[in-house]
């Protein structure tokens, strides 16, 4: 594990901490000591034990649990861009067997959806700002619309995915492209793996999402949601956006040379590593 002494992860393979991966030793000193701790780790673990499912829709649906991390080990005065991407866990497509309450392989995976990354809308920002509070990717949305032009993350339904989180140093040097592979650090938390679905298959996932999602209060109380005019289906309840519309995209000032910054996901300008299967237990890269 890489960690500052006061916030280091516990010994052993503890949930909620991303362990050190290969290649970490040759990273820039401003990123090599970065540590990410997954927030709501117990809730993620509870979902993971049941087999987490995430709804994907044509219009885009937010994740629940929301992906949130607490960062430490950054250079307080350096600028960083934070982003996420999603990689397939395998080359299979699945179906849910209701009689056995389990997922079964249904064939080869569909052609890969267009790869996109989601930039945290506060990027770029100083390390001190990122470490001051929990970093939340609550604006990120998942879609199954291959023609999506809203910048949402495109996933195939009935496929398994691993979210990845990346800390990218904004290198002020003119020849920063030469050092691109040294200027980022990636984190994967195995407990955040999920199956993309258009409707929840496991009724226990539906119940847990209703019980733990604050936006599903109306379903727990037997009352309709106050912010919508009609009762939602169970598959819609757990990630209701509460009527909030996505903010109009405004590029941030002083974009560094050759680096895209902003809130909308785009194809990554960074050489993010390919995820290599390793028993589905992935660490930092």
Blueprint of the fold:
Elements: E1 35-38, H1 41-50, E2 53-55, E3 61-62, E4 68-72, E5 79-88, E6 92-97, E7 102-108, E8 117-119, E9 125-126, H2 127-132, E10 135-136, E11 141-143, E12 153-154, E13 160-169, E14 184-188, E15 194-197, H3 203-212, H4 217-221, H5 234-237
Parallel strand pairs: 2-15, 11-12
Antiparallel strand pairs: 1-4, 3-11, 4-10, 5-8, 5-9, 5-13, 6-7, 13-14, 13-15
Question: What's the gist of this structure?
Answer:
Pfam families: T-box (PF00907). The chain contains five helices and 15 strands.
Q: What would you call the structural class? A: alpha+beta
Helix count equals 5
- The helical percent reads 10-25%
Query: Could you say which overall geometry the principal axes of the C-alpha atoms support?
Result: globular
Beta-strand content estimate: 15-25%
- How far apart the termini lie comes to 12 Å
CATH first level of one domain: Mainly Beta
**CATH homologous superfamily grouping of one domain:** Transcription factor, T-box
Residue stretches low in confidence (pLDDT < 50, at least 5 long) are: 1-14, 19-23, 222-267, 277-285
Oligomer: single chain
Which H/E pattern describes the elements?
EHEEEEEEEEHEEEEEEHHH
Radius of gyration: 19 Å
Number of strands: 15
Overall pLDDT confidence: 77
CATH architectural label of one domain: Sandwich
Main beta-sheet strand count, sense and barrel state: 7 strands, mixed
**What is the CATH fold-level name of one domain?**
Immunoglobulin-like
């Amino acid at each position: 594990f890489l960690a500052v002494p006061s916030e280091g992860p516990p010994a052993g393979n503890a949930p909620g901490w991303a362990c050190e991966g290969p290649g970490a030793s040759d990273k820039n000193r401003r990123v090599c000591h970065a540590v990410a701790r997954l927030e709501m780790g117990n809730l993620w673990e509870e979902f993971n034990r049941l087999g987490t499912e995430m709804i994907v829709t044509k219009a885009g649906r937010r994740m629940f649990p929301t992906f949130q991390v607490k960062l430490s080990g950054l250079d307080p005065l350096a600028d960083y861009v934070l982003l996420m991407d999603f990689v397939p866990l395998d080359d299979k497509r699945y179906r849910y067997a209701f009689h056995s309450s389990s997922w079964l392989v249904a064939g080869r995976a569909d052609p890969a959806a267009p790869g996109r990354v989601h930039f945290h809308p506060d990027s770029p920002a100083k390390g001190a700002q990122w470490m001051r509070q929990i970093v939340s990717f609550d604006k990120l949305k998942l879609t199954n619309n291959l023609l999506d032009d809203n910048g949402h993350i495109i996933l195939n339904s009935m496929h398994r995915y691993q979210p990845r989180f990346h800390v990218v140093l904004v290198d002020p040097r003119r020849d920063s492209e030469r050092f691109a592979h040294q200027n980022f650090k990636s984190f994967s938390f195995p407990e955040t793996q999920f199956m993309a679905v258009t409707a929840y298959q496991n009724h226990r996932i539906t119940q847990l999402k209703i019980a733990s999602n604050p936006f599903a209060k109306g379903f727990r109380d037997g009352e309709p949601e106050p912010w919508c005019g009609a009762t939602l289906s169970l598959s819609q309840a757990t990630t209701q956006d509460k009527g909030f519309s996505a903010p109009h995209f405004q590029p941030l000032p002083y974009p560094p040379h050759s680096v895209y910054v902003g809130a909308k996901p785009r194809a990554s300008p960074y050489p993010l590593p390919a995820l290599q299967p390793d028993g589905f237990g992935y660490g930092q890269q």
